Predict the 3D structure of the following.
Amino acid sequence: MILQTEKLTYKYPNSHGHTAVDQADISLHKGETVGLFGESGSGKSTLGLILAGLIKPTSGMLRHNGEKISAPYKGAHRRGIQILFQHPEISFNPALILLKSMTEPYNIYALPYSYSSLLEYLKHYGLYEEHLYRTPAQLSGGELQRAALARILAIQPEVIVLDEPTSMLDVITQVQIMNILKDYQSKNNVSYILISHNRILCEKMCGRIYKVENGVFTEEYGRPTDK
Ligand SMILES: Nc1ncnc2c1ncn2[C@@H]1O[C@H](COP(=O)(O)OP(=O)(O)OP(=O)(O)O)[C@@H](O)[C@H]1O
């Protein structure tokens, strides 16, 4: 089991007692895609933020590869669990050109790269030299989301939380992103948590689905994946 939660609970400090995530028991295996499906406000993104180590649960426990972890993650946990947001701007410093943002993970994790290897790598994401000298505001939503994904995959995480990764994109870019994710998973055995209010997408991508209603996560079995 790569990720497991036990009675994970979260109440926002200003929420007057409302429980955003209510004793969630979630499990994720290596190479698996699990869906979190539910209406707006049901608690999906909050659980995603907890799993990614960006907020600390009010109570409950989270394990990564059997080891108890708590935010902010460090070392292998930090590198191993990543999140792709619906709005990729969140992940980029607005003042930096893309070249600076793209080299960041290589520098943080001391991974080898060269300018030409970076250019070659980015080609697979439909990004070219011309894009590297623009700031996030000078890139389209689709380009920025592909850059966000390229940046995450460069560090070879074990788990990626995909929080509505395609809902702001046109259909062609949606398909591109989903194909990159599927292809990467088949080669690297990465695990995904797919957060979506789109039942069809969840059923297409996920082996298992948790239905989310008012903070309560209930496991359902979706159709087998078509990987
Ligand atoms: N920063 C915050 N402060 C207080 N309450 C919040 C905050 N963020 C979310 N909430 C509340 O927590 C609950 C769960 O929100 P969450 O964003 O996790 O839902 P969601 O299922 O991801 O919704 P969506 O599909 O619209 O993104 C909602 O009632 C929401 O209003």
Observations:
- Residues 3-220 form a domain with the Rossmann fold fold (CATH 3.40.50.300).
- The mean pLDDT is 94.
